[in-house]
Amino acid sequence: MSAQSNQQGIALNPSRRELLVSGASTAGAAALAALGSTAAVAAGKPQGHAAPHHTGASSMNTITTKDGTRIYYKDWGTGRPVVFSHGWPLNADAWDAQMLFLVQHGFRVIAHDRRGHGRSDQPAKGNDMDTYADDLAALIEALDLKGAALVGHSTGGGEVAHYIGRHGTKRVSKAVLIGAVPPIMVKTPSNPGGLPMDVFDGIRKSTAENRSQFFKDLAVPFFGFNRPGAKVSQGTIDAFWAQGMTGSILGQYLCIKEFSEVDYTEDLKKIDVPTLILHGDDDQIVPIDDAAKLSAKIVKNATLKVYPGASHGMCVVQADKVNADLLAFLSA
Prior knowledge:
This is Non-heme chloroperoxidase. The protein is α/β, with parallel strands linked by helices.
């Protein structure tokens, strides 16, 4: 989303690819990794119920899905509902800036931790996009949300698109995709501008061997902190690492396939509500040319807004701008 980079050029840069495959020990190595398979659960209406889950002196809001997995969620406010889906390898805390802002402007804001991430259960089963979308549907139905706006970042953008592809828009009024992975990230005959499979194999290798160091390295290009003149925030890097480390290494490992190999083209075609697509043209993780620019051509009633020089972590680094655009779109 105009210093637009050629994604194929990025993917074929020898130094970047060598670094990523060798273990992502530098910022360039991590730059292609940050987004949100086992057998998919059968399609159908998910059944979940909302209930507080008690652990000692603390309590958490959770729903229990039809396969017995508890999904943690936050639910603040009483206005029109806005539901957030986070990116890989993070959790609902990635939306802090947007949730605080929108609840203060009269919206009801809801965000969940994807299964295998954050405070949700860490099952060996269901770490696939079909189940992620069904978990989101279970949450929306358990809370009986109507006219909800769905907002997804990175892998969460794929989750929003796939939710609509599987469950329709009867409970949805608007959609927002931010730095989102659709239509598809991996290079295929029908997607020649995508990233080679060895890029994602490198991500798997880095996650399996030393995810703690990988997440610390990854945070730097994720937020554009490797760019000249960038104001580096150690707190932001630490928060990224902390969120990542709360998740299940198994769930995160399996999720790599879901954000890289799933083709969301048919899901995008089924989006029939007003849709806002936000993307930075210096996104080093999900390059704009093979993501937002293509999605905007597929989604009916889509508005594409490009953030010049913005990183993948624009919801944090440019929170004020993102918040203002969300408020304007949701209020229209």
